Amino acid sequence: MKRKRTSESRERKEEEDRRTDERKEKEDRLSDLRDERKEKEDILSDLPDEVLQHIMEFLPTTQAIQTCVLSKRWKNLWKGLTTLTFLFINGGIRNYNRYLVNHVLSNRDDSISIHKMFLTIYNSTKVLNNAIKYASEHHLQELQLLIMEFKQTPNSFIPLTINCKSLTLLVIYSNSSSFPLILPPSFAIASLKTLLLFNVSFTARDDNNCAEPFSECTSLITLVLERSMHTHSTKTLCISSPSLSVLDMKNILYWDYFEPEIVLSVPKLKSITLENDRFSMRYRFSCTCDLPLLTEVKISNRVYVDPSIIIHWLQIFSNVRMLTICSRTLNMLKDIGLDALEIQPPCFARLESLKIKMHFGMVMSKTELNMVVNYLWNCQKTNVKVMEC
Description:
- Residues 41-89 form the F-box domain.
- Pfam families: F-box.
- This is F-box domain-containing protein.
- InterPro entries: F-box-like_dom_sf, F-box_AtFBL13-like, F-box_dom, F-box_SCFL_complex_component.
- Residues 1-36 are annotated as: Disordered.
- It is a single chain.
- This protein is α/β, with parallel strands linked by helices.
- It has 9 helices and 18 strands.
- The strands form 3 sheets. It has a 12-stranded parallel beta sheet. It has a 4-stranded parallel beta sheet with strand order 8-10-12-14.
- Helix 4 packs parallel to helix 5 (125-137) and helix 8 (327-334) packs across helix 9.
- The protein is extended and about 110 Å long.
C-alpha cells in the first residue's frame, strides 16, 4: 500500500512538473511574440513622418485618418497627406459628402499642397464645387473625378477645374445616362499632359458648328475620349494639339440626322486607337498633315461600320508602321466584294507589321481572310509581317 501511494505521489509530481513546463513554455512564446511585436512597433516608430505619410497615401483617406487613434504621434499625421482618395464605402451618401467637406478638407494642414486627388461625388454640386475649389487653391497636379447619381449633370465645376493651372492629369467620368457633361468651347489648361473624358459633349466656338476644345492644351500628350458626343451644333470636332502623341477614341456618339467629321491637327501623333462596341459609327476623318511620326494604329469594331468609311480611315493613317485590326472589321470589308469597290486601297508606305485580332466566335474562313489581307497588302515594303493574335 505504501509503495502504491509513493507511485501515485510521483505521478502527481510529474504531472505538475509537466504542466509547469507547458505553462512556462507558453509564457515564453507570448513573451517572444510581445517582443517581436514591440520590435516591429519600434521599427515603425523609427520611420520619419514623411515615410509614414507616404505609406498612408496608398490607403483610402478615410482609412488613413483612422490611424490617428494609434498614438499621439499619429494623431495629426493624416493632415499632411498630399494624396487624397475619397471612396464611398458605407454609411450613407449624405454623411459621406458631409464628412468629405467638413472634416477632411477643413481639418487638413492648409499649408500643404495636394498632389493627387481621387474624388467620387454623389449628387451634390456644392460638395463638388467646394472640393475642386479647395484643390485648385492647393496646387493640385492630378485629379480623377467620378460624378455619380446626379439628378442634373453639373457643369459649374468645370471653370473651377480649368482654374487649376498646375494640373498635369485630369480624368472626368460622368455616369449620367440622360445628359452628358457639357464642355466649354476651350479647355485651356496649358500644363495638362493627360486627359481622359467619359460621357461629355462639345461646344462650338462660333456659328460654324466646329468644336476645338483642346487647342490651348499646349502640353497635352495623351487624350482619351469615351462615349463623347457630337451634337447638332458641333458637327465637326477638331482635335488640335502641337504636342499630342496618343489618341484613343471609343464609342463616339452623334445624332442620327447628320454625318459628323473629326479633323486631326496633331503633327506629333504616334498612336491612335479607334474602338466601337456599342454604336454604329459613320464619322469621317480628315487630317491637316500626313502624320509623319505615326507608329501604331488599332481599329476594333464590334458593331457595323460602313466599309467605305473604314477604307477612308486607313487612307488617312496609311503612314503607319504597325497596324492592328480586328477580324470583325475585316469581315465588314469582305461583305461588300472588294473587287467591285471603287475606292482605292490605302498605300502603306512604311508598314512593318499587320496584326489581326481574332474575335471569339467570329465566322470567317481563311480564304475570306486572305482576300481582305491581300486587298490591304498595298505597301511599298515586301517584308511586312502578318500575324493573328
